[in-house]
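Question (not urgent): is this output format expected?
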Amino acid sequence: MTDDLFIDRKRRAALWFRELRDQIVAAFEQVEDDHTHGPMSDHAAGRFEIRETSRQGPDGADAGGGLMSVMRGGRVFEKVGVNVSEVFGPLGDQAQRSLTARKEIPGLQDDPRFWASGISLVAHMQNPHVPAVHMNTRMFWTPGGWWFGGGSDLNPCIEYTEDTADFHATLQRHCDPHGADLYPRFKEWADEYFYIPHRKRARGVGGIFYDDHCTGDWERDFAFTQDVGRAFLPAFLAQVERRRQMDWSDADKETQLIHRGLYAEYNLVYDRGTKFGLQTGHDPDAVLMSLPPFARWV
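Got this back:
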């Protein structure tokens, strides 16, 4: 697999993740503008603060970066981050061990170069009746292999069964054209991945998750990953619209803060993306933007 073969593919993937980021940021700011009735509608509409992130290699050379977009204290979104990145350089020993623990990567020790690009999103909501959500899609390349990963999952503190069913149904509609086996397989993977062993419970109500996805047909795998990204807004915004005007009590907010503690525990202890981002020297604020603004442990 030559570097030249993937120059255009890398460009296309990075451009797609940036385009998806732009669509989501615009859609979320529109939600803020549209929330003119209900709790917190008298507050100013939230807007994203945007800054570039950068990464240096072990020798101090440019090793890529990205764009960090965070909205805090909005009418609907208490904190939401939508990050895109494109990073490259040599993988350190710890990062190599992390990757090869999951799959064999030919020639990695001899040529430890990597390239990765993706979008990562986490939204924590003002209203406890509106679920938190996570989504990411990404592409990873080394001289000895390439793959895609990603998914999205819903994290309500107060579950509504119709919301869970609708979220999953939207994901399945986007997965099925690429193979009837994908949604059930990746749903099961999400159930396993987003489980908190020390709490003996799931982080939320699941979704889909996949990693190391490489059928050998790059165009096919990229098209699937794009549809996973396209599924996000219709899957999530339907739940936001259904719940954002509901009143909540102090007890509801307490339930939300305790549930956020579970989210923080999972991301700091188990999440692969968090570990890999810190291991490879990416901007820690961007890596840890997934943490909620407030949480509670009892």
